[in-house]
Amino acid sequence: MATADPARPGFQLPLLLLAGFRTLIDDLHAELAREGHPELRPLHGFVLQAVGVDGTTATELGQRLGISKQAAGKTVDRLVAVGYLERVDDPQDARRRLVRVTARGADGLRRSAEIFDRLRERWAETLGPERVDALEDDLRTMAAANWFRLDVPGWLGG
């Protein structure tokens, strides 16, 4: 059944949500670059979150992200090369290597959180704080209960 209002066809809603997401992410990365993190890309935030505070293996990382072990390994290699992750021996099992977030990676995550706060404030200045609050409330109502999922890279990649 077609949308009753031809000025608001159904396909526009996901595209507008994606455009809002893309705007926030592009603005985040522009600011991160100005603050000393030009190497960070949108995927890297998911990776750093998936590695977590205790570290993980490349296999576990791939599972958390919904991508292959090989894809996870390539991403880890890139983030090790630019100083956001490190590989260390697992103190629990000498046969395993753990991937851990470095101080530089933690700084990138901290700055990302601070920048997101500033971006939200910018949206509130433009739209009004009540409208931003309502938008967030409405999205929470419509989103799945487990709305924050780290497997977005694998989901997007198919």
UniProtKB/TrEMBL annotation:
Coiled-coil parts of chain: none
A molecular function GO annotation: DNA binding
SUPFAM superfamilies found in the cross-reference section: Winged helix' DNA-binding domain
Highest taxon listed in the record's lineage: Bacteria
UniProt KW DNA-binding keyword: yes
Domain HTH marR-type: 10-144
Alphabetic keyword roster: DNA-binding
Record GO biological process: response to stress
Record InterPro entries: HTH_MarR-typ, MarR/SlyA-like, WH-like_DNA-bd_sf, WH_DNA-bd_sf
The keyword DNA-binding is annotated on this UniProt entry: yes
Pfam families in alphabetical order: MarR_2
PROSITE patterns: HTH_MARR_2 (PS50995)
Protein name: DNA-binding MarR family transcriptional regulator
